[in-house]
């Protein structure tokens, strides 16, 4: 993203929340995502060239028009995952995510899944390789 072109933006115009400097110093797990990953997500949401240029400050529209198969916003390697579900219907959702442990080699992490209503669910977690 073009920082120079957005130099008049305040800190409140960037990011998705508050920064905790103590936690930022030792994040534990990191979800790897690049600018092109975010641009692909915006393309999947239907952003046009003008909107992409406003968001990125660059001519990133090639990512949407390169002939690749359009993805889903859920393809972004990000900890939040959601799927629309019709009541009474079975469904399957797959959310591949890759994280890098930048914490202690012996660290253990817990997964928390929040469901709005009781559902019969099964979760599978795999390590690559």
UniProtKB/TrEMBL annotation:
GO BP term (any one): proteolysis
Pfam families linked to this entry: fn3_6 (PF17766)
Top-level taxon in the UniProt lineage: Eukaryota
InterPro entries on file: Peptidase_S8/S53_dom_sf, SBT, Subtilisin-like_FN3
GO MF assignments: serine-type endopeptidase activity
Keywords in alphabetical order: Signal
Residue ranges constituting the Subtilisin-like protease fibronectin type-III domain according to the UniProt record: 75-114
Similarity section: Belongs to the peptidase S8 family.
UniProt name for this protein: Subtilisin-like protease fibronectin type-III domain-containing protein
Record organism: Zea mays
Taxonomic path: Eukaryota, Viridiplantae, Streptophyta, Embryophyta, Tracheophyta
């Amino acid at each position: 993203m073009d920082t120079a072109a957005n130099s008049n933006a305040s800190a409140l115009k960037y990011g998705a929340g508050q920064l905790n400097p103590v936690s930022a110093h030792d994040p534990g797990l990191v979800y790897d995502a690049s600018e092109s990953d975010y641009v692909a997500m915006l393309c999947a949401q239907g952003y046009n060239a003008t909107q992409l240029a406003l968001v990125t400050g660059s001519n990133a529209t090639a990512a949407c028009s390169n002939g690749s198969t359009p993805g889903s916003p859920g393809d972004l390697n990000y900890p939040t995952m959601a799927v629309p579900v019709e009541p009474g219907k079975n469904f399957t959702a797959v959310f591949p995510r890759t994280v890098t442990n930048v914490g202690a080699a012996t660290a253990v992490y817990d997964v928390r899944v929040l469901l709005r209503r009781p559902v019969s669910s099964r979760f599978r977690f795999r390590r690559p390789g």
